[in-house]
Amino acid sequence: MGRSRAGLVQRYDAPVTTRLRNCDPALRRAWHSLCRDTEIGLQPRAFRLLGEDWVVWRDLDGTARVFRDLCPHRQAPLSLGSCTEGTLRCPYHGWSFNAEGACVDIPALGSDATYPPRAKLTGPAGVHESHGIIFIAPDEPLTPKPVVAAASDPTMMRGDVPVETTRGGAGLLADNFLDMAHFPFVHAGTFGADEVREVPPYTVTRDGYRFEAVYEHDFANREDPKVATGEHPLIQRRRLTYRYTAPFHLELDIHFLETGGTNVIGFFLTPVDDDHVRVYSSLWRNDMNGDETLMQAAVDFEVAVIAEDLALQSRFGQLSLPLDPTIEVHTRADKTTIELRRILSEFCTAASA
Ligand code: FES
Ligand SMILES: [Fe+2]
């Protein structure tokens, strides 16, 4: 990238990976959302990530247990087995594994048998549960654990958007979330009709494999009931803070400067296989007064917004994200999405070193 009439776009080094596909091996060295806590229970269930299946169940003490969904004996899917008191039994020959993945029973060998040393389950390098999502790092992670500050704020109420699986690229969906220029076009049916087309100047602050971008702008607040009574002006000011953590954790914090309300949208993208992504999204709001009906309306609105994005994103011909900066055309309005490419490019280089 170089200087253009549209403004200065900073260079970054040539990437080792030209286009980042969902199942790029480098992504094994990062934290990924695997499932939501409401999707798992005491019985095993499979979830796919980076083209591999993982079996997940809740131990009796409530801990989420995660292993490759492959029995070490004849590679049967363990998720089709069953758990009894936290012990997982394979559906094929009945081998049993405890919460640490150690084999504790091989029925065909009778009692008092010695088990082969390799008769154990393979786990990920890390498991982490936070704000209703179970994250795993398949291999030793280079990226930090995803944190949503609003999740530990007692004034915030959380609403979970139903899980959606779509044809798509995780990098493209991250790009879409960070993009500020598509609102009037893609979201004309929800919030985009009143949005100004010009993207104001804004700054991007990098911190390792994270960045934050902040800008303020005026908007028509048609949802504010005090506009109708004349207590608040229609045109109000809000501050948008985008927070990104590599590879696919995103957050948008919308702070309404007149009313003090804060609306945080969390977006966690799971690269399922090269053609599919699971989208985990939650809202945190401090202006709901504990009203579940209001929160449900906010969630329903977010579902409609995401549907507008996915209608386009699921139709892209190539689902990989270009990391080679010469593939696409960039402008100063694309600073967040250029930073996304820069960070993912550096991450891929580090992961393959
Ligand atoms: S394949 Fe699992 S016990 Fe044989
Ligand atoms: Fe969008």
What radius of gyration results from the CA coordinates?
A: 23 Å
Would you state the CATH class of the largest domain?
Alpha Beta
Within CATH, the superfamily of the largest domain carries the name: Naphthalene 1,2-dioxygenase Alpha Subunit, Chain A, domain 1
Uncertain residue ranges: 1-8
End-to-end gap:
24 Å
Mean of residue pLDDT?
92
Question: What proportion of the residues form beta strands (DSSP E)?
Answer: 25-35%
Q: In what order do the strands lie side by side in the largest sheet?
A: 14-20-19-18-17-16-15
Secondary structure tally: strands: 21
The share of residues in helices is: 10-25%
Number of helices: 5
Q: Could you say which small molecules are bound to this protein?
A: FE2/S2 (inorganic) cluster, fe (ii) ion
Question: Biggest β-sheet, characterized?
Answer: 7 strands, antiparallel
What is the name of the CATH topology of the largest domain?
A: Naphthalene 1,2-dioxygenase Alpha Subunit, Chain A, domain 1
N-to-C SSE series? EEEEEEEEEEEEEEHHEEHEEEEHEH
Overall CATH architecture of the largest domain: Alpha-Beta Complex
Number of domains: 2
Q: What is the molecular shape?
A: globular
